[in-house]
Give the backbone structure.
Amino acid sequence: MQTVSFKLNGKPVAAVVGPVESLRDALREKLHVYSVKAGCGQGGCGSCTVLVSGDPIVSCLMPARVAEGLEIITLEGIGTPAQLHPLQQAFYDNFAAQCGFCTAGMITVAKALLDRNAHPTREEIVEALAGNLCRCTGYLPIISAVQDAATRMNRGG
Amino acid sequence: MKQLRIVGQSVKRRDGMGHVTGQTQYVDDITYPHMLWLRMVRSPIARGKVRTLDTSCAEAYPGVAAVVTWRDVPNNWYTILGLIGVGPNDEPVLAHEQVMWKGEPIAAVVAETEEIARAAAALVRVDIDELPPVRDVFEALAPGAPIIKEWGTNTFMYEGMPMRRVRFGNVDEAFAAADHIVEGTYQTTPYEHVPLETQTCVVKPEPDGRLTIHSNTQALYFTLDNTAIILNVPSNRLRMIGGTVGGGFGGKVDVVAEPVTAIASMKTGRPVKWRWTRAEEFQASSTAGAWRMEYKDGIKKDGHIIARKVRALHDAGAYHRHSPYGVTKHAANLQGPYYIPNVWVDAYCVYTNRQPASALRGFGVTPASFAVEVQMDKIARTIGMDPWEIRFVNAYRNGQMKAIQKQVEDATLVETLQAAAKLIGHPLPEKLLAMHSNDWKGA
Amino acid sequence: MATEAMFIPESPEAALDLLSEHGRELLILGGGTAAMVLINEGAISPRLVMSLQRAGLNEVRAVDGHLEIGATASLARVAQLSALPLLADAARHIGGWAIRNMATLAGNLFVPPPAGDAAVALLALDAEVIAARKSGTRKLPLTKFFKGRAQTALGPDELVTRIDVPRPSGAAVFLKLGRRRMNTPAVVTAAVRVVRDGQGICVDARIALGAAGEYPLRATQAEAVLQGRKLDTPSITDAAAMAMQAAHPSSDALASEWYRRKMVGVCVRRALEAITR
Amino acid sequence: MAKVLGRGIAALHYPTGMNLGGDPTQALIYAQPTGGFVVKLASTDLGQGLKTVVGQIAAEALSVPLDSVIVDTGDTDNAPHCMGTFASRATHRAGNAVIMAANEAKEALLQVAAQELEASPHDLVMADGEIWVRGSPARKTTVFDVALAAHFKYGKTISGRGMFLKPKSPIDPDTGACDPDSTEAHVTTVANVEVDTETGEVKVLKLSSAYEVGRQVNPKMLEGQIVGGAVMGTGIALMESCFPSYPALEPHPASFNDYVMMTAADVPQIESVVLEYPSVDGPYGVKGVGEMTANSPLPAIVNAIYDAVGVWITELPVTPERLLRALEAQEPK
C-alpha cells in the first residue's frame, strides 16, 4: 500500500491505495466520493467518468497511483444542490435522469464538452456522449439537456 | 370525471435533484466499518457432476474471512416459485452435486477487500466431471436427450401436462373454412437487462440478532420472504431496505444476491457487500430467454383471421426462475390485440444447460408481440390487403372474448391505429376512420 | 495472487532499467485501458506493473518531413494530428472520448482484433516502430512488428518508445464498419492510401485491414493489382477481391468470419471509391 | 443501389399486472401534526418515477398541495406489503392502494374538520389544503389547523389504509381460461428504416407512435418511458444478444465491447402522441406502460425491412449478417 496525493475538486487529498487499485475505488472507498459509480470496471459504460486536468477519463481504468499530483474533478466539484451548474439544472428540468446511475458521468462529460465548445452541434454532443451508456432514457432527454445548458450558459445564465 | 389538479401535470422528479448532484444514495454507496467483500466462484462449464470442492487454499489466504458453500445454506433452494406454491424447487442457492450452466454459483469467498476476495476466489478448486450440455429446445425435446430435470422431463409440468394449453373454439374446423393459410416461424435469442447498476447487496448484522439487508431488488417483500425461507429464519428477523434502484428492467426480481450475502454475514458476524461485476451481470444474471414460435393462421378473403394454431417453445435455461409464468403469460397473449374466434396454443417451458432466463421488460409478451405483428404483415402481403386495414379489421373490440375466455373491456387499438396514421400523415380510407373500439354489436 | 508493486518511472531510462530487471514479469500499462479491464475482473493478476504515464514518452514532433509520435501520446491527441488525417480519423473512431483520453498510440499496437484501428492506419502510412532496450534502440517497420494474435517482435526487455510516420503522399481514406455508429470495436476496418500520377495512374498503393486476421495486416496483392492502373470500377473490383483473399478473419460476438470477409471487400471498395471522389 | 428505404407498422397491446399467486399492494397514509401527509409504501422506484407519480396521486386524492406529501418507499420495517415493481403494475396497483388510503385519511380529516367548523362532514369541501362549508366559504379552516387539532385537541388519528388486490385466478389447464391481468394499454408504432443492401446494416430513421395509456399521471415522465423504451426496443431488434451464435453456448459476451447496445449516436428520431381512455379499474384510469414501450419497435422494424428489401427476418436480433444472408438467399425477382 502506498499513499497517493492529488487535488480533488480543488482541495488537496491523500489516500492509501493498493498497487493497481483504480482511481474509481480510491475515490469511492477511500475518499467517499460517491457520485463516481461502479458501472462496469471495463471502461465501457462511463458511469465513473471524472475530469483529470479537465479531460474526461474513466476512473475505473486509471490506477489511482497514476493520479499523483493531478487535478481531479468529480460531479461534486461541478455543482452542489445549493449551487447548481447549469448542466445540472438542465438535466433536472429536462427529465434527463431516470434511475440516475449514469447521470454523474453524463454531466461530467458534458461539462468537459461545454468547457471546450460553447456552441456544440447535436452531432458534437452525441460524439462526446457516445462513451457513456444509459439504459433508461433513450438518450434524447440527455442530448436535449446538454443543448439546453449550452443555451443557458451562452445567455450568461 | 372531475377536473384533476396534480395528476396530469409534468411535475419534476422527487429524486431528480439527488440524481443531478450525485447525492442519491444507491446500495453500493452504503458502507459500514469492518465491512467484508464477497466474490462468487462459478462453474466454468455448462453441465457436469461435481467431484470435489476444495476451499482450503482460499480459506488460508491472508485476509479471507470465510468461504461459503452449499453446506452453509440452511435451505439450499431458490424458492421464488415455491413461495407462491408453484413447484417443484429445482435450483440450489449454491451448487452441490452437479452444475447445470456455465456461471452457476458454487462458493462465495468473503474477504477484507474486493481485491483479496478476487485473488482468493481463484484458489477455490472445483473438480467437475463434464457431461454433454443440452443447448436448445430441440436438443432438449429430441428422443434420447439427456434428461436434466429430477421429475423426468425437460419441460415444466403444468398440472400434469408438459405445456401450457389454450383451447378456444375449434381450429380444425376453422382452418377448413379458411380461404388462406399463412404460416410463420419466429425465433428470438437471449438478451440482457443491462441496468447501469449491477445487482448489489449489503448485509449488516444487528445487535438484536436481526439482519439489515440493503438491496436494489425490485420487490422488497418478495426478496425478504424468499431470503427468510432460504436462511430458515422467521421473516421478522430480516429487514429489507431498498427502493432506490439503478435500473431494473425485470432483472432485479431474481433473489440471487441477498441470501448468499446474508449467510456470509451470519457466518462472519460482520457486514458484507456483494456487488456483481459487469461480466457477472452479462454472463450469470438471468436473461430474456430464447423463443421458438411456430404459427399457422387461417384467414377469410375479407381479412378476418378465424383460426390460429401456435406451438411455442421457450428456452428457459437451466432452472425455472420465473420462466414457467412467462410461458403462461406468453400463451395468454399470443392472439395479440385481435379477436380470433378459434385459438389453439401449446406453449412449452423447456430446460437447457444455458444461463437461466427470467423476467425482462415485456416478459413473455415481447416475443408474442413480435411474432404476431410480423405475422399480421405476412398475412396482409399474402392476401393482398393493406397492412393498416388488416389490423383494423381484426382489432379486438370491447365486449368480444379473448382466447383465455376473458371479455375485452379496455380496447383502444383502433384508436391508436387512427392516431398513428394521423401522426405520420398517412391517409386512411373513410371506412377505417369510422371504426372504433365500441363498434362491436355482439355475436 | 495480488499485485505486489506498481512502478511509475519518470524517464525512458528508468523504464528501461525496470524492464531489464524484471523482463516479462512486468506488465506494462500505456493508458491502462486494456490491462486494467482484465485486472479489475480478476482475469489477470500480474505480480509487477509499470505505468508509462510519466516516463516522458508522449512527445509529438515533426522532424525532417516525418512525424515522431511518442509511444504514450493519447489517442485523443493523435485524433487532432492535422498532418496525418488518416491516423487522426482512425483514432477518432476508437472507443469513447474518455477512452481516447487515456489510451495510447503504442498501446493500440498491443490490443488484438477487433481492436487496434490505429495500427491499421499506421500500416497504410508505412510507420516504423522504435523499440528500445538498455543497450540501444532499433527501428522496425510496422509490417515486421506483428507476429501473431497479441504477439509482437519485441524482446522481453524491449519497449516501444516512439512511432515514426513519414509524411504521407497520395490520397487516403479510413473506413470502419462497426455494429454501431460510434464507440464500437471493428467488424472490419480498412485504411487505404493511393498515390497517382498526373494521368491518374496508381503508382503506389497501401491497403491495410483491421479485424481481418490475427493482427492488423496489409493486403499487398490487392495493392499490387492497382499498380499502373486508373482507379476505376474494374481495378477497384479487382483490388477488393484480392483484399478479401488476403483476409483471414475470426468469428466473434460481433461478426462471423464469413461476414467479415465479405465486408473487407465492401470496405476496400468503398474506401477506394471515396478516393476517386 | 445500396441504401433502400422502408416503412413498417406494428399495433400492440400490453396487459397490466400479473397473476401467479394473487397480485396485492398496500399503502398507509398518515397526517403529521402540521398537516403533512406521509405515504408509506414498500414499492420500489426503478427510475421510472414511481415516487413522483405516487406523490401526485396522493396529493390529488387528499386534495392537498403536492409539497405537503412525503413519499416513503423501500423499507419493510416501515411499510406494508407490496408485490414488487414489475409486470407494468406499480403505478396501477400502488396508485389504487394510495387512493384508497387517501380516501380513508381524508374522511378522518373531514370528521375532525366538521367538529371544528360545527358542520356535517358531508357538507365540507376541500381543496389545496383548505376546508370550508359548502355555500359558506367564510366558515373555513386549513389542513394545518385540523391536523393540529386532531393531534392535540381531539386525540384522533388522521390516517388511512389502502389495499389493492387482484385475486389469484386459477388457470383451467385444459383450455387456458383465466383472468391474469387488469387492463391493456395499446400502441401503434410506425418505423422508418434505411437498409444498406451491401452490408445488411439497418438504420432506424424514425419511430412514430400513438400510445393509449388510460391516463397520463406525468406526461414528461411518460415520454421518458416512451423514448427509453423505443431505444431499448431498437437495440433488442438490431443489436443485443447474450448468445450471438445461439444455440451455440459461445461466444458469450462479458463486456460492453461484445454485448452491443445503443449509444447516443444510434438513436432514431422519435415522435409520439398519447391518447387517454381511462381504464375501468386503474387509479384515475391509469394503465401500465413501462414494458410495452420497448416492444413495438421489434415487429415495426422487421416489417419495415420487408417493405424495403422484400425479405422477412424472423430471427432476432436483425444483425447485418443475418439480413445479408437473407438477401443473398432471396429469389431473384
